[in-house]
Structures are given as structure tokens and as C-alpha cells.
Write a structure and sequence with these properties.
- With about 300 residues, this protein is α+β, with helices and mostly antiparallel strands.
- The protein contains eight helices and eleven strands.
- The chain folds into two domains: about 5-165 and about 290-300, Ribosomal Protein S5, domain 2; about 170-285, Alpha-Beta Plaits.
- Helices cover about 30% and strands about 30% of the residues.
- The structure holds adenosine-5'-triphosphate and magnesium ion.
- Magnesium ion binds near residues 101, 103, 104 and 183.
């Protein structure tokens, strides 16, 4: 249904890629990036028809198990709205399994589409809670919901976040390798305990990174130093760690994006970042300021 209970012709959604962790902000920090998945949902019939173009088109299922479809269904149920069938078209630009938040974009995009189908304005706080439940952690979904730079945490089981404005014109260059690494696999490499000194260093650098991202881009290189997760992931992505070391050695604030294997240079600029290694893609991006967006078209 559309606004005021009128049938809704079509819902369009645009949702950004996100980079979590950003070095020391493990499981908490997120940055929304100007690389987008777009969805078009047209209600009708009793089942689902799914069309996918772009990233993941050859891999994702085209039935009720599709992550966007599951998220639309979960959103409709939470909002108490009946939409038995719909056609979903996905134009995907966020690569899958590379640490750029494709699963979060699918979940946040699907839930936002449910708001559009229900004819309700998006309640971002609630959307984040629902997205966290589906994704299992709040860092990427927070940035996809709010845009900008987000600090997320769990309050009991509830995903919460604050959004901060990154400093003007903050850029990011993403180096994306051809191979995938599943989040589960990359997480499995982390130790269950770390030395107190490493934990203390990370806490200080995370606090500094908030300052660096919002006011002092000159501090980004030192503020993105991490001792909790990146190096442990090397066996799953040795080329990514080698690239991080090389870029950092030349003064660029390079980090592993999310669970990898993408390498992100925060504050990176086209002029200063080198060409990607053979077989890698490079995306010159900026910070997305607004997060997921929804447009509903009313019938008649
Ligand atoms: N747009 C999408 N449509 C349907 N399924 C998707 C979509 N995006 C992601 N998925 C599902 O999520 C999986 C990738 O999730 P995973 O969390 O491993 O990687 P990621 O989200 O790209 O990276 P990260 O979580 O490290 O940022 C895909 O293999 C696919 O099953
Ligand atoms: Mg994911």
C-alpha cells in the first residue's frame, strides 16, 4: 500500500556500500561510500520474481531465499502490512564477499523497501534495530542506514548507532581483489584473547580516529593503526595485507575494509593513490552523506 493506504505502483531504493572497522574501530565504526545498489520493487501477484544485474548476478538465488526478498518480507511482517507478491529488480554495484557491506546493503535496502511498500516514512532507528537482527552485528548496517561516519554498539540485543559528519570532502579509494573471502572465514582467524597492551593501544587509536575522521585528516595514518584483527587475517588474504603495508609505508591511511579482502585508503585521493595490482579493481569514492533512500510512486 502507498501513503494514506493507497496502492503503491513501485518502490525504488538506493543503498550505499559501507566499510566497517576502519582499522582500530573493530565491530563499531562504519563509513558509507558512494557506491550503490539500486532496487525496484513492484507489488503484485502472490509470489516473487527476482531479476538481478551486476555484482552477484550469477550467484544469488532468485527465489524467497534471496537476501533482499527475505529482508522485504521481514520488514513487511514487522510493519504489519500484507503484500503477498512482488517483482524485485536489483542493479548491484557493491561486490559480494569483499568487505564492502553487500549483505548489509541487501538487508537495509530490503527493509527500507518494506517501508516504501507500507507507505510509511522510514524510521531509521527501528530500521537499524531490524537490520542488526538480520545481519547479526550493527557496524555496516548503521552506516548503510544513516550515511556518513557511524559508531555502532549493542544495547542488549539492540543495534544502536550515532552518526558523525566526516570532514568535508573526505575521499576513499577502494582496491578490490578478484577473490572473495566470507566474513565467517575471516572472523574464524581471530584469537579469543589479546595482550592488554594491544587492547589499550586500539582503544586510544579508535578515539583518535573519531577526531581524525571528523576534524583532523592529517592524523588519519596514525589513527588507523590496528592491533586487534587485521594481521590475524593475513592467512586468508596475504595479498591484501601486503598492499596495506605497502600503501601505509608510502604514507597512505590504508586498512582492511570490513572482513576483507578489499583494501581501503581513507582520505585517499586519485592523485596520490597508486594504480591497483594486476587483476584488482580500483574505485575512487567519497563518503555518502545520507544513507539508504526510498522513493514510492503512487498508483493513479
Ligand atoms: N545484493 C544482494 N542480493 C542478494 N544476496 C546478497 C546481496 N549482497 C550480499 N548477498 C549475500 O551475502 C553474501 C556476502 O556476504 P558477506 O557478509 O560474506 O560479504 P560482504 O557483506 O560483501 O562483506 P562484509 O560483510 O565483510 O562487508 C553473498 O554471498 C550473498 O549470499
Ligand atoms: Mg556482510
Amino acid at each position: 500500500m502507498g501513503e494514506g493506504g493507497r496502492p503503491c505502483d513501485q518502490v525504488r531504493v538506493r543503498v550505499p556500500a559501507t566499510s566497517a572497522n576502519l582499522g582500530p574501530g573493530f565491530d563499531a565504526f562504519g563509513l558509507a561510500l558512494t557506491l550503490y545498489d539500486e532496487l525496484v520493487v513492484t507489488p503484485g501477484g502472490s509470489g516473487v520474481t527476482v531479476h538481478v544485474s551486476g555484482c552477484g548476478a550469477d550467484d544469488v538465488p532468485l527465489d524467497e531465499s534471496h537476501l533482499v526478498v527475505r529482508s522485504i518480507r521481514a520488514g513487511l511482517e514487522a510493519l504489519g502490512v500484507q503484500v503477498p507478491g512482488f517483482t524485485l529488480r536489483c542493479e548491484n554495484r557493491i561486490p559480494h564477499g569483499r568487505g564492502l557491506g553487500s549483505s548489509s546493503a541487501a538487508i537495509v535496502g530490503g527493509l527500507a523497501a518494506a517501508y516504501g511498500l507500507a507507505g510509511e516514512p522510514v524510521d531509521r532507528e527501528r530500521l537499524l534495530r531490524m537490520a542488526n537482527e538480520l545481519e547479526g552485528h550493527p557496524d555496516n548496517v548503521a552506516a548503510a542506514v544513516y550515511g556518513g561516519f557511524t559508531v555502532a554498539w549493542l544495547d542488549g540485543d539492540d543495534g544502536k548507532a550515532v552518526r558523525l559528519d566526516p570532514s568535508d570532502g573526505l575521499g576513499a579509494v577502494a582496491y578490490v581483489p578478484a577473490n572473495r573471502v566470507l566474513t565467517k572465514e575471516a572472523r574464524g582467524l581471530l584469537p579469543s584473547a589479546v595482550p592488554h597492551g594491544d587492547a589499550a593501544a586500539n582503544a586510544g587509536k579508535a578515539a583518535l580516529l573519531v577526531v581524525a575522521l571528523t576534524q583532523r585528516p592529517d592524523l588519519l595514518l596514525t589513527a588507523t593503526e590496528d592491533r586487534l584483527h587485521q594481521e590475524f587475517r593475513e592467512p586468508a588474504m596475504p595479498e591484501s595485507l601486503a598492499l596495506v603495508h605497502k600503501l601505509r609505508g608510502s604514507g597512505l591511511a590504508a586498512i582492511i575494509s570490513g572482513a576483507g579482502p578489499t583494501v581501503l585508503v581513507v582520505g585517499g585521493r586519485e592523485r596520490t593513490c597508486p594504480a591497483p595490482p594486476d587483476g584488482w579493481e580500483r574505485h575512487d569514492l567519497r563518503v555518502d552523506p545520507v544513507g539508504v533512500q526510498v522513493w514510492s510512486m503512487e498508483a493513479g
